[in-house]
Amino acid sequence: MDLKMQFLKGKDRNTVAYAFVPGNPHSKNLPALVFIHGLGADASSWMHQIDYFSKEGYPMIAIDIRGHGKSQGSRKVAFFSMRRMADDLHRVIARCGYEGDCIIIGHCFGGVIAQHYQNMFPKSAKHLILISTTSRNRRKGILLFLKIFIWLFPFRIFAKTDTAKRNHREYDYWKGTADTKPERLFAAIMATYPNNYFCTLAGFSTFDNRRKLKKYNLPVDIIVGDKDSVFKPNRSYELHRLIPKSKLYIMKNVNHLIPLNAPDDLNALLDKILREK
């Protein structure tokens, strides 16, 4: 299945790209599955899940977050705030007609956006599924370093923010790679454009959602690989401890890149979770 992207203007007039896959008309009353990718990825990183759940009849939305895939980027760190990303997601979900009737599935940075979305729009989602993510990343020193780096590094002079030449990546090429494989990370940075990649990272550097998690009043499922070296399993244990209605699933012999490296196992687990709700 090829993703046919649609475009929507965000609150600050940026262009947001997303794919909408209508559900099977014979499968009534199914909520929309909303997929949010991680840092340096794009909507096509969910292709294995979209192919699988389209056969189950689910309507689905997959968004390119700001500066990624075919969505507009910027040279400014403020453009990549999680509040703005959550607002982009809200506009897309509303346009597709599934506000209040959706399940949000976020991987890595997408799981952080999912949490921020729940904070801003607590009645929009029925259920959260957080994959390989964290409740916090509050590191002011890193923020300062990234701001200086973004300002001084030569790519700022040649920074690109348009989406005309950006295409979705072929993720299966990197299947089986380690969390920190240099070639894959470099490819992600260049495909996203360095200014977008590092500004997104800077926008994430002061995130801390621990206090708000205790107030969540919806089902939350947390999935992590036992070999995750980006957000180690202890981060998922913390999420599980803080969120009242949460369940934790540990996938064996899987690293951070669960949608890429264990797509069939992830699909089976997601299917199990969805059937239980």
Walk me through what this model shows.
This protein is an alpha/beta fold. It has a single domain (5-276), classed as Rossmann fold. Helix content is 37%, strand content 17%. It has helices at residues 47-54, 82-96, 109-120, 140-152, 182-192, 194-204, 210-213, 233-242, 258-261, 263-276; strands at residues 5-9, 15-21, 32-36, 60-64, 102-107, 125-131, 220-225, 246-251. Helix 3 (109-120) links the parallel strand 5 (102-107) and strand 6 (125-131).
SSE layout and pairing:
Layout: E1 5-9, E2 15-21, E3 32-36, H1 47-54, E4 60-64, H2 82-96, E5 102-107, H3 109-120, E6 125-131, H4 140-152, H5 182-192, H6 194-204, H7 210-213, E7 220-225, H8 233-242, E8 246-251, H9 258-261, H10 263-276
Parallel strand pairs: 3-4, 3-5, 5-6, 6-7, 7-8
Antiparallel strand pairs: 1-2, 2-4
Low-pLDDT residue intervals, each spanning 5 or more residues: none
What is the CATH superfamily? Answer: Alpha/Beta hydrolase fold, catalytic domain
User: What is the CATH topology descriptor?
Assistant: Rossmann fold
Instruction: Find the structural class using helix and strand composition.
Output: alpha/beta
Beta fraction: 15-25%
| Mean pLDDT figure | 88
State the CATH architecture.
3-Layer(aba) Sandwich
Number of domains: 1
Our count of helices gives 10
> Which percent range fits the helix content?
25-40%
Order of strands in the sheet with most strands: 1-2-4-3-5-6-7-8
- End-to-end separation in angstroms reads 27 Å
The CATH class, by name, is Alpha Beta
What about the largest sheet? 8 strands, mixed
Q: How many strand segments?
A: 8
Task: Note the overall shape.
Answer: globular
What letter string, H or E per element, gives the SSE order? EEEHEHEHEHHHHEHEHH
